[in-house]
Structures are given as structure tokens and as C-alpha cells.
Write a structure and sequence with these properties.
By secondary structure, this protein is of the alpha/beta class. Helix content is about 35%, strand content about 20%. It has a 7-stranded mixed β-sheet with strand order 3-2-1-4-5-7-6, sandwiched between helices. The longest helix has 23 residues.
Length: about 260
């Protein structure tokens, strides 16, 4: 298939294999996938290895990403990787293939997140688990659909598509008055990351990453207001594999009398 404009933009999205997100990925593993064995697992948009790099061996793991560079890094880490733009292309798997699908801070990048949701439901077994996260809009991340990616709105969006919500929490911290010192903190974080790469020959764990991991402990998650989380995390069940398509029928039925 000819490269989409989005594929061209993301072709070299991952410049090098980077270990700086290791603490975050291990948090997901410990919180949602401890003792998971013998499962078929797909992660979408995990070009630097994602969570599945820590689930391989005891599980059959796959990855899909839009970046050509990601294919190289994922295969180096022993993950079966497939190139696809999940905003418009079918996932290259049969219906009801996976026990678990993971998509961490991916859906907000898509022109058509609803299309991706339909595909995720299709390849996920009934009552299979879908774990996803989105960035808190307060971080300053540019969003195609800003209102969708508010904590309660996205939770409702998943419910509308007939996912059963098991849990909703946050990762990291986006502190009060973030707008006032975002530029300075981001600048210092990038500087620290560059220095660590030069010193040790690869992406290393920064101080801010360690702070984010600490702020995502069970205790801190319990007392931290969700509005101050860096990203919003949802654990769901695919209770109705056709739910995303059925919502169209319901909307059409409810509104046809208005025209």
C-alpha cells in the first residue's frame, strides 16, 4: 500500500532506540499485566518497544506502528511488528485474534480515532482487555479533538462504544500552574536527556521520569487529583465487539426525526 501522508510524517519518528520510558512501561506491566502468561497481545504505536517488550517470552506479542524506523527497533527487541496507519488502514489480523490490546497515547494522534476503535474491537476477543491512555490536555499537547481527550469525556467515549470500564486512573503528574513554568521544565528535561545520551550511549532514565513513576505509585495515585495526572489511563473489557459500529445505528435512529 502506498505510504499515506501520515506515514511519511512519522517515517523517522523514532530516531533511535530509547530506554528513557522504561520505568513507565514497567509501571503498566506491574499494574495491569503481572502474571499474564500464555496470552496473545497486540500493542499499537509502541515504536521504542512499549510494554510488550516486557511481556514477550511468556506471551505471544505483536506490535503495529506507523513509523518505518519503529519496525527496525521493535524487531531488534524480538517483537513481531507490522507497519500500518491505524487511522485509515485495517489492522493486519483476523477477527477475535487477541486477548489483550494496548494503545498508550496513540489515539489522540489519529485523524480518525473512531476507525481505530472499530478495528481494535474487531481484532480483540469478546471480553478481551483493552488498556489505553491519552495525554492530559493541560500538558499543552496539541490535539485534533481537544474536547474528546478530557478525562470524563474519553471515559464516556469508551463506554459509548460499549467497552466496559474496569478502572480509570492517571500516570505521572501535570502539576498546578504548569503553564507558567512548562517551557523551563521542558527545556531542562531535554537538556538532561541529551547529556545522559552522550555520557552513556543511549536513552537513560531522567530525574523527571523518576518523579513521574513515584507520582504513579498506588498511594500517590489515590490522593492525586486526576486533573493533575500527566496522562489518563483506562482499563476496559471488549464486552461488545460490535459496539463501535452499533453506535452509528443508534445515533441515526435517535436523530432521524429531526430532519
Amino acid at each position: 500500500m502506498q505510504n499515506s501522508e501520515e506515514k511519511k510524517l512519522h517515517e523517522e519518528y523514532y530516531i533511535k532506540s530509547d530506554n528513557s520510558n522504561t520505568l513507565k512501561y514497567k509501571w503498566y506491566k506491574e499494574r495491569y499485566f503481572n502474571n499474564v502468561k500464555g496470552k496473545k497481545i497486540l500493542e499499537i504505536g509502541c515504536g521504542d518497544g512499549g510494554v510488550v517488550q516486557f511481556l514477550k517470552g511468556e506471551n505471544e506479542v505483536y506490535a503495529v506502528d506507523i513509523s518505518k524506523n519503529a519496525m527496525k527497533f521493535l524487531k531488534q527487541k524480538g517483537v513481531k511488528a507490522f507497519l500500518a496507519d491505524v487511522s485509515k488502514e485495517n489492522l493486519p489480523f483476523k477477527d477475535s485474534t487477541f486477548d489483550i490490546v494496548i494503545a498508550l497515547e496513540v489515539l489522540e494522534h489519529l485523524k480518525a480515532p473512531q476507525y481505530a476503535i472499530e478495528e481494535i474491537q474487531r481484532v480483540l476477543k469478546q471480553n478481551g482487555r483493552f488498556v489505553c491512555s491519552i495525554p492530559n490536555p493541560r500538558t499543552g499537547h496539541k490535539l485534533l479533538y481537544p474536547c474528546l481527550f478530557k478525562f470524563r469525556n474519553f471515559k464516556k467515549y469508551l463506554s459509548n462504544n460499549r467497552f466496559s470500564i474496569l478502572s480509570a486512573t492517571t500516570y505521572g503528574i501535570c502539576p498546578p500552574f504548569w503553564d507558567q513554568f512548562r517551557t523551563l521544565i521542558t527545556k531542562e528535561w531535554k537538556k538532561e536527556k541529551q547529556e545522559l545520551r552522550k555520557k552513556e550511549g543511549g536513552g537513560q532514565i531522567t530525574f523527571l521520569t523518576k518523579v513521574a513513576r513515584f507520582m504513579s505509585s498506588d498511594l500517590m495515585s489515590a490522593i492525586k487529583p486526576k486533573i493533575f495526572g500527566w496522562s489518563f489511563v483506562y482499563e476496559t473489557l471488549n464486552s461488545n465487539p460490535f459496539g463501535a459500529k452499533e453506535i452509528y445505528k443508534e445515533i441515526a435512529e435517535e436523530t432521524k426525526g429531526a430532519y
